[in-house]
Design brief:
9% of the residues lie in helices and 34% in strands. By secondary structure, it is mostly beta strands. The model is unreliable at 15-19 (pLDDT under 50).
């Protein structure tokens, strides 16, 4: 995924020293956001405090008694719905894996100066909310609507543009039965950092589509052109290419770290013998059918056992029995 214009990269000739050290701006972002500690992959449902968060601007303070969601634009019956009204509608609870589209960004070369994700920009939670489709049907979309723009209450400057964070979905994507206006996470009201009082949940999509602190839904007869759609979150090989939009989560796997760590370096100490390696695998496109594991740097591979799960949007547990003969130190 390319870097939006105006964002420097390490090693691109911009004058930033090429090294494994992180830029001061990256450290500031890292302290504001949160990755799941890899040992947290042991939980089928990620505890709220371990679930990844990424906030582009400030976390807004929202008084839910005064909050309302506006549904307008090219609709026959504009609506404004408060939290209580949403909660009185039909509800669903879905277990959904969310991953940041920039997960692993700090491993790129050249490295963009941005949120320095290594691994762990992921979580698997139970989201409770109101299905979006019946609300759109009540509002009555005009026949020529092609997209829906979802805007949050978080406001800031990005790419030189002052904006509310906003993302769009096509009509077909928005009308999926599993798209939710979620107001609870793991059985409790949303925490402020997770989008209180209401956020969008679009199962299978990267996290940028799950707009938090949702304030409005606008039906549009034109394709979305906002910064977060037209400039950011696109796959390309260079800044000059328009690229392809980021949508569904690509296949991915992470491993729970075996053994125990050194405090400072996080080097893992694993004693010789039999070790049961475990991890999680997921994809927004389809269920994961197979996970292969290498314990010798890719020279050979073995097939792991992959669990089936009842929730189609949830990550899957995999296991692999590892036999080795020497004490091992490895970086997490």
């Amino acid at each position: 995924m390319s870097t939006p214009p105006g964002i420097p990269t390490v090693g691109d000739g911009s004058g930033i020293e090429e090294s494994r050290q992180f830029h001061e701006a990256e450290l500031q972002l890292a302290f504001r956001n949160n990755a799941i500690p890899l040992e947290g992959l042991r939980y089928d449902v990620t505890p709220v405090g371990m679930h990844y968060t990424l906030t582009h601007y400030d976390v807004p303070f929202v008084d839910a008694t005064r909050w309302g969601l506006d549904i307008g634009g090219a609709v026959r019956r504009p609506l404004t719905l408060g939290l209580e009204a949403l909660q009185q509608m039909a509800t669903r609870t879905l277990r959904v894996t969310l991953e940041c589209a920039g997960d692993g960004r700090a491993l790129l070369h050249p490295r963009p100066v941005s949120q320095p994700w290594l691994t762990g920009g992921v979580g698997n939670a139970e989201w409770t909310g109101t299905p979006l489709r019946p609300i759109l049907e009540e509002a009555g979309l005009d026949a020529d609507v092609v997209s829906l723009v979802f805007a949050g209450l978080d406001h800031g400057l990005e790419g030189g543009i002052e904006q509310d964070y906003a993302r769009a979905l096509t009509i077909a994507d928005a009308l999926s039965d599993d798209v939710l206006l979620a107001w609870a996470m793991n059985g409790r009201p949303l925490e402020p950092q997770h989008g209180y009082p209401v956020r969008l949940v679009v199962p299978g999509w990267y996290g940028m589509a799950h707009v938090k602190w949702l304030r409005s839904i606008e039906a549009s007869v034109a394709a979305a052109t906002g910064y977060q759609n037209a400039v950011a979150y696109r796959y390309s090989q260079s800044r000059e290419e328009p690229g392809e939009p980021v949508t569904l989560i690509r296949v991915r796997s992470l491993m729970m770290p075996p053994g125990f760590p050194d405090y400072l370096t996080r080097t893992r100490i694993v004693r010789r013998g039999v070790v049961d390696l475990m991890g999680r695998a997921w994809s927004g496109y389809a269920r994961v059918a197979r996970v292969d594991v290498s314990t010798d740097g890719g020279r050979s591979w073995g097939q792991a056992e992959v669990d089936e799960v009842a929730d189609p949007h949830s990550w899957q547990l995999w296991r692999y029995r590892w036999h080795f003969r020497r004490r091992l130190r490895c970086r997490r």
